[in-house]
Design goal:
The structure is a single chain. With about 280 residues, the chain is of the alpha+beta class. Helix content is about 25%, strand content about 20%. The chain has 2 domains: about 130 residues, N-terminal domain of MutM-like DNA repair proteins (Alpha-Beta Barrel); about 120 residues, Helicase, Ruva Protein, domain 3 (Orthogonal Bundle), CATH 1.10.8. It is built from 6 helices and 10 strands, in the order H-E-H-E-E-E-E-E-E-E-H-H-H-H-E-E. The longest helix is centred in the C-terminal third of the chain and has 20 residues. It binds a DNA duplex (16 and 16 nucleotides) through loops.
Length: about 280
Amino acid sequence: MPELPEVETVRDGLQRHVSGRTIADVQVLHPRAARRHLAGPDDLAAVLRGSTVGVVRRRGKYLWLPVGHDALIAHLGMSGQLVVGDPGRPLAPHVRATFAFTDGGPDLRFVDQRTFGHLTFAPGGAVLPPALAHIAPDPLEDAFDDERFAARLRLRKTGIKRALLDQSLISGVGNIYADEALWRARLHWARATDGLRRPDVTRLLAEVRAVLAAAIAAGGTSFDSLYVQVNGQSGYFDRSLAVYGREGEPCPRCGTPVRRDKFMNRSSFSCPRCQLRPRRGRW
DNA sequence: CGCAGGCCCTGGTAGC
DNA sequence: TGCTACCAGGGCCTGC
């Protein structure tokens, strides 16, 4: 699933293959792809036509392609892909939008099986789209403030994993990297945020950054064909996962079988020995 | 206002 | 074999 490392890998690919090129035509093939663009798919295509893509940017799991003072926002949701290729290739299933360029070179296609992803136009959004103002800086940005994060965490009345997944508190972390960072920091997902000590928070942030950086270096995590880079290739960080998706397999640190809990209508993987369940946890 | 839960969506798979 | 139920889960929205 695309979390920060996967989105960053896509951003890098777009920067190398799309930045500096001028959009000749946009086809929106599925209305859900443009559902956040209130003026509709035709308007989205119209405002982008003739625009030249600037330096591709990212905050958390959001991407945006600056066009003049404005921007095209893209979110991959659960299964979104942005792939670049020969314009003559056949249209794959689940292609939701296509972008052709004036140079006649490789085109850009937005593919999204589960349609949780979307594209929208952000007027005046070249630097930071106003629609993303509620998204907190991600922990790899200079703008991320560790002290502020620790202070806000202390005020929360919830569990640490729920807080890690809250994009208004810290962005870019999804279910996979939340589980991996918590395992690395030896923290149980239900630990109360207001009960964490500052060293716990410092350690957790360090592990969040470490696991995100390692995953970026590996080109992201791919369990199946649902996440690919812009060239269609898979990342290989799934080989480095310690607990996520590994129920019953030995914890790489102590050998105890990894357990799976139901949480927030999804799964949480942890080591029952390295990550002791708190007596008074929150979730 | 903070927090928790529902909903959106599709394809693969487990189970009967 | 063919059906149903369930699973993956990010972010917006609603309601308590």
